[in-house]
Design a protein that fits this description.
Number of helices: 7
Shape: globular
Order of helices and strands: EEHHHHEHEEEEEHEEEEEHEEEE
CATH topology: Double-stranded beta-helix
Distance between the termini: 30 Å
Helix content: 10-25%
CATH superfamily: Clavaminate synthase-like
CATH class: Alpha Beta
Number of strands: 17
Largest sheet: 8 strands, mixed
């Protein structure tokens, strides 16, 4: 088990593949002070300032947090962590949570430009009424297991999601599935259709005006399966591909090894995007339902200790 100054680190109650990291109040107080130097506009327009707040966070842990987070995410046996305040005595507003999420992400790698939001992160609401063209905001529909970045050219090694706020919410739990726990992985991975080139598009709300081509499954450097898949965006070109995708979808949603957990407000979940799939259970209907989430996704730094080894 990892030991880091001012952090409590343990396995999540639902899975030993997921680490739970609790931040001591002492760190949060110091971060609030150091973060005040930067408003969100500065972080959005000056990328180097994002590295500064990341180093502020790392320094408060004796420059160990960056090493731990990268080790967890790159380890095939784990690849996921949930980080949150140990106690919610301090009032953490939405701006602070954006800054904290930014700091965490820049200990891991470089975020991609999010075309939907027009910046390196996206904030989006889920409400009772929805007229969007994506399952992302449809509160009462199951958001099936998927990975991110299937329809963009950028490398998407990891995904970060922070729960900023929620009110009048029942249901909407996070669902996760590690490829190595999926009962049907070998069957679908060894099917040659899964390594054919599929065309992937996206709805208008994503603001991506091109399509990409890639297989559902590939291999890592040790020959283990990696997956890039979301149910809404592939465009099968024949009966074989269409039936394969239906089988894949049914087997993912039918897995008995999904991890379903409720994330508290102010918590951030980060997962390796190649062997973890994520989704969301439907909410219980409520006209006053509200949830706001933040999303950042990107690529790993080439050097694991790229933050702690730099003098910013």
């Amino acid at each position: 088990m990892y030991k880091v100054k001012n952090l409590d680190i343990s396995f999540h109650k639902s899975s030993k593949r997921i680490y739970e990291i609790k931040i001591e109040e002492e760190i949060l107080k110091k971060l609030k002070s150091s973060f005040n130097k930067f408003d969100l506009t500065a972080l959005e327009l000056k990328p180097f300032s994002r590295f500064t707040i990341a180093k502020n966070l790392d320094d408060l842990t004796g420059s160990k947090l960056s090493e731990v987070l990268n080790t967890i995410l790159r380890d095939r046996n784990t690849g996921c962590f949930i980080i949150s305040p140990k106690k919610m005595k301090l009032k953490l507003d939405d701006k602070f949570l954006v800054k904290l999420s930014t700091a965490i992400s820049y200990l891991i790698g470089n975020p991609n430009f999010d075309s939907m939001a027009g910046k390196y992160y996206a904030r989006f609401n889920i409400k009772h009424e929805d007229k969007s063209d994506s399952y992302l905001r449809k509160a009462y529909k199951n958001m099936d297991l998927h990975t991110d970045g299937t329809y963009v050219k950028e490398i998407t090694d990891w995904l970060l999601m922070t729960k900023i706020e929620e009110k009048n919410v029942k249901g909407g739990e996070t669902a996760m599935l590690h490829l190595d726990d999926w009962e049907f992985c070998d069957q679908l991975f060894n099917n040659p259709v899964g390594r054919q080139q599929f065309i992937w598009g996206s709805p208008k709300s994503k603001n991506v005006d091109y399509k990409v081509s890639h297989p559902v499954f590939s291999k890592d450097d040790k020959g283990r399966p990696k997956i890039s898949y979301i149910d809404q965006f592939p465009e099968p070109k024949n009966m074989e591909q269409g039936n394969y995708l239906q089988k894949l979808s049914d087997c993912l949603e039918g897995s008995k090894n999904k991890i379903v957990t409720k994330l508290p407000i102010g918590s951030t979940i980060v997962a390796n995007n190649y062997f973890w799939l994520h989704g969301r259970k439907p909410f219980r209907e409520n006209q006053d339902l509200f949830r706001e989430l933040l999303r950042i996704r990107g690529s790993f730094f080439e050097e694991i200790n790229s933050i702690s080894n730099r003098n910013i």
